[in-house]
Each structure stands twice: as C-alpha cells, then as structure tokens.
Amino acid sequence: MTVSDDLARLRLHVLPTLGTMALDAVRPRDIRDLVIELGKRGVLAPRSVRHVYATAACMFRTAVADELIPFTPCVLTKGILPKNIDKDASFRANAIFTREEVQTLISDIRILEDRRVLHALKALAALRHSEASGLRWRQDDAALEPLGALNLEKTKTKVPRRVPVHPTLGRILRDRREGGWERTYGRAPTDDDFIVPTRNMTECLSPQAQNSFRADLVMLGFRHRRGHDLRRTFITLAQVDGARRDLLETITHGPRGNIINVYTTSRAGALRRGREAQDPDSDRCGHETGVAKADGSGSHPRRRITIACYRSCYRTAKLAKPLAKRCDPSGIRKCKSQYETRRGLHKTSSGRGLG
Known about the structure:
It is a single chain. Helix 1 (3-18) packs across helix 3, helix 5 (99-107) packs antiparallel against helix 6 and helix 6 (113-125) packs antiparallel against helix 8. By secondary structure, this protein is mainly alpha-helical. It folds into 3 domains: 3-89, Tyrosine recombinase, N-terminal domain (DNA polymerase, domain 1, Orthogonal Bundle), CATH 1.10.150; 94-236, hpI Integrase, Chain A; 280-355, no CATH class. The chain is 50% helix and 3% strand. It has 16 helices and 3 strands.
C-alpha cells in the first residue's frame, strides 16, 4: 500500500460520509455505521473495507497525537469489521502466471519497452511496485559476481535489502541502460535517474501502472490478474523448483528481526543457490542420502546428521524408518542422545522425563 492508495481510500470512501463533520464531532457510532455501510454496498471486498477502516483509524490516531481531538472514534466491537478475505475467495489461489506468460510479458515487442522492464523487475526479482518504480540506476550493482544485485533503499518495511539479479533480468537491465533508456527519453541515463520513470521523468504511480498492466493483459489475450501477482508468481515458482524458504524470504521480504540477521549480510553465492532447485538426491534437512544414483554408478556417501538436522527433520518425522535407513545410524543415535540431553528429555529413575 502506498500514500496514493491511502489518499484514494479517504477521498472515495471516508470523506463522502464524514467529510462535512468537524473532526471532534465524529463518534464511534459514525465509524461503525461507515464500516457497515461499506460492507452492505458490495462494491469493496471485505479485505478492502478493512483497509479503508485502517486508513481512517491511522488518521484519527494522528489527530490524537497532534492534540486536535481527545480520543479516537475508531473503536469497534468484535464482529463489526468483515473478515480479512477477498471478494472472490478463489481469485488469490489462481492469481499465478505460467512461465510462458511471464516470458511473453517481458519479451513481446507489442508491449512498450519500459513496461516490459517493469514487468521483469516484478516477475524476476519479486519487487513490489513501489520498489520497482522507485529503483534508480545507482542501485543496480551489475559488477557483483556471480550474480548482480539490486540494492533496495525504499521498501514497504523501511528496511533496505539486497536482491540478486536473475541472469535474464541482468540482460534486460544491461540492454536498457546501454540503449533502451536513451531511445525512450532522448538522452543517456544518469545514476540518479529512475530505471522505469514516466515520460515526464517522474516515478510511476501504482494506479497508472495497474491500468497499463491491465491493458497489456487484454492485448495479449491473458485473463485478468494484478501486477502484484507477478511477485506472487516468482515466490510460488521458486518454491515449486525447490528454493530454500529461508533465503527466499530474505530475498523477497528482508531478514527477520533478530540480532543474528542484523549482523548478517547475505552473499550473492548463497542467494544464487537459494534461487536454484535443491539437489534431488538430498532430503530436506540437507544431509546426503544413501540411495543409488540415477545412472547406476554407485550411491551417495552417508553423512552423520547434526543436532540441528535431528531437531528440524528427524524429530518432526517422528523417528521415521525411511530417514533412518538413509542416514548413518551411529550419527542418528548420537544426535538423538545429545538432543534429548539438551531438552531435558532423559528419563529419571522414576521413569518420568526431566522436561
């Protein structure tokens, strides 16, 4: 959500009802009636009604902080706000693009070049619209090896993050900088220029981009989806191909808020491995299996699993026999014993666990 989205919600859904009232005259019943009325109209999805309420609540909290009113009227009892669901419950589950559709959206010459680049930033780097539209050339670190990187400064969470550049996206950005940008705007780009600005050299706003994206889908004969669904597609297809969820989360949402992540900088090599499918001959905790290779040339060596593997994989598998067959038995027994000791699970003389 952006500032323009919040302004549109106030202008279209809050001000027509409450706009003529004095700020200190608005009461909780007025907010309650507004929410109920928005739900009855059936124009907005239940999730959108909640967004309108959240915007109005933020406005009134700010008024309280500025000492313009003594209290906020945005106090609703349980059950007034609708559930946080879409208008069409099945839309989000099917709002995914196929690989062929993504390829068409970033390469079809019938689509304007700057719009193809914007689609590529969303589909191949999983950027939100505000992140893609606010991206400047100085943030494109093409010299980084083995993959280039986009150093995001303006994010939804206000936390900068680094996104590895897919090789296809890297070629698109290189062609764009070496000639495409100048063909569109009549001069070579500088480091402070937006990568995909409007024709007036300003940042492309979300409503404008969504209208253009909708027109591109109609022109290509694709069914309706949103520009944000390109980001959903990246995350979904990456998991289908076996990407590590922890690295995928770091790439698309930034690091979690713990002290280790604050002191950790993800390297391009690790991020690249996070975008690639995992080795099909490794099970999910990362230790090698003892099954035969597909070409019959032997089997992979067994490796002793660690306590971390036991905790995350062996324990959740509830001591599954298939896993025991694939791992070094002595390693399993040792890690099981160490794990139980740490957790205080060894039995006492009375037969009850210490934990």
